[in-house]
Amino acid sequence: MTVQPFISPDLIRQRFSRAMSDMYREEVPLYGALMALVEQTNRDVLERQPHLAEHLRSTGEIERLDMERHGAIRVGTASELATLARLFAVMGMQPVGYYDLTPAGVPVHSTAFRAVHEAALRISPFRVFTSLLRLELIEDPEVREFAESVLARRSIFTEGALRLITQAETTGGLNEAETAEFVLQALETFRWHHSATVTATQYQTLSAQHRLIADVVAFKGPHINHLTPRTLDIDIVQTQMPAHGITPKAVIEGPPRRNCPILLRQTSFKALDEPIAFTDQNQTHGSHSARFGEIEQRGAALTPKGRALYDRLLNAAREELGDFPNEANAARYNALMTQHFAEFPDSLDGMREQGLAYFRYFATEKGLAAAGLGETSLQDLLRGGYVKAEPLVYEDFLPVSAAGIFQSNLGGAAQAHYGEHSNRQAFEQALGRSTIDELELYAETQQRSVEQCAEALRINLT
Ligand code: OOG
Ligand code: NI
């Protein structure tokens, strides 16, 4: 008997990401329209800005651009979250970061499952923003108990998916045939269901507590609620959306437009109202809106110092605005953001010298030709042109932005105030493991690149 080799988790993730995109495009045609718009915009931008194209080529990002996307799901119980962590682990995805959305009136806390090593991210940067409903925040004890009992009855994974997860864990991987089966089985968890698992009245009760609660509790599984392609110019896409029959949210979340993009900018179109059937109706009668479209533009990952500056400027602009950004105050919000962010250095050298962003260092041709320079510093190598620095791409999410995305697709009625806040410990207990600190990952990637430079140039860095 010949032993079939294991498929690498990175390739399983790449295949799953493709399968998910195909499924979502079939389910939500507007996602296909958005993808086409993003692809066209990216092509135009690359044509107009050859230096950007060159930069993306030299960092290997050009290859991942077209397949880059993130999605989001929401689950209802600790055991669902823990099993999801095991499912994503088969694809080399780990829970990175902890996001508390309750300050923004959304009763969930979240993490992002993603690859953690730069080599793995290059093969497939697919990420899934995963939220756990905080049932303890439902005020009405009767509704809470009802929600718990409905969730306790459902099983969001197929038998086949559970079997293959266990098999990957015990044998150390999946072969070709098992991978193909795993992708099919895993996909079922994220599929949309046209029928709810509750009656119309029960749905109304859940929805009256918070629309998000109905979205999580009233269905058979955690349908993927959006998939987000990465664009090179989000402002262009935002302005062109209406001409393509897509209505964007009022403002772009994240930092304002800059020469040197930082962190993450996002915008979305409103959730679609979709027909659903309740258990007490045999035909489609009700409707539910959950699924929407989103685009993102990614920039440099910031150090703790850079992030603190970002948070301070964002808070200052929002405080001065005095309200959540919306259609009526969008122009003022954009002006305030630009004004406050003038304080954030907008050049790569400026950000590097002030320790605001993480970088990856590459040995240049000149550096390689002069290898063996002896003892020197990174600063001298950069100045002499022996090494060059490229900012690390931010691979994560932003809590204030995520809350803005949630709000825009849940509608204004979804505002609520919760006294109880952040509870990372409870989240990690539900997850069955701790979440990884994203800042450590960027610091490690930066450090590895410095070491590779030293090795390639055969030097001792001081
Ligand atoms: C997730 C919203 C957050 C993002 O990109 O920040 C998000 C959700 O609506 O479930 O996707
Ligand atoms: Ni998103």
UniProtKB/TrEMBL annotation:
SMART domains per the UniProt record, alphabetical: DUF1338 (SM01150)
GO molecular function terms noted in the UniProt entry: dioxygenase activity
Highest taxon, organism lineage: Bacteria
Keyword Oxidoreductase appears in the UniProt entry: yes
Record-listed E.C. numbers: 1.13.11.93
Alphabetical keyword list: Dioxygenase, Iron, Oxidoreductase
UniProt keyword Iron, yes or no: yes
Cofactor entry: Fe(2+)
Gene3D superfamilies listed in its UniProt record: Uncharacterised protein PF07063, DUF1338 (3.10.180.80)
Alphabetized InterPro entries for the sequence: HGLS, YdcJ_bac-like
Family assignment from sequence similarity: Belongs to the 2-oxoadipate dioxygenase/decarboxylase family.
Entry protein name: 2-oxoadipate dioxygenase/decarboxylase
